[in-house]
Amino acid sequence: MEQELLKWKEKVKEQERINQEQKQKLEQQQKRIESNESMLATLFEKLNMPLPPKFSCATLMQDKPNDVGEASNGNNDDNFGFE
Q1: CB 40 within 8 A of CB 70
Q2: Are 55 and 35 in contact (CB under 8 A)?
Q3: CA-CA distance, 83 to 76, in Å (whole number)?
Q4: Per the record, which residues fall in region Disordered (predicted)?
C-alpha cells in the first residue's frame, strides 16, 4: 500500500513538472503573439491604415481618431481580405 502511495506521489511530481514546463512555453508564446500584434499595429499605423477588427490589440489604434479606410482613398484596390 505504501509503495502504491509513493508511486502516485512520483507521478504527481512528474505531472506538476510537465505542467510547469507547458505553462512556461505558453507564456513565451503569448509574449511572442503580443509582440507580433504590437508590431502589426505599428506597421498598420505607419501605413496609415486601420487595423483589422479581429486583432486583440486593436485598442492600441483606437486611442486616437482614425477615419482612414472609411472613405475611398484611391488606394483600395487590394483590401487584404478585410474591409
Answers
A1: no
A2: no
A3: 9
A4: 1-29, 60-83
Give tens-digit pLDDT for 41-62. 899 999 998 888 877 554 444 4
Residues 67 and 48: beta-carbon distance below 8 Å: no
Q: With beta carbons less than 8 A apart as the criterion, state whether 57 and 37 touch.
A: yes
Amino acid at 40: L
pLDDT by residue (tens digit) across 14-23?
A: 999 999 999 9
What span, in angstroms and rounded, lies between the C-alpha atoms of 17 and 24? 11
- Are the beta carbons of 44 and 50 closer than 8 angstroms? yes
Amino acid 81 reads G
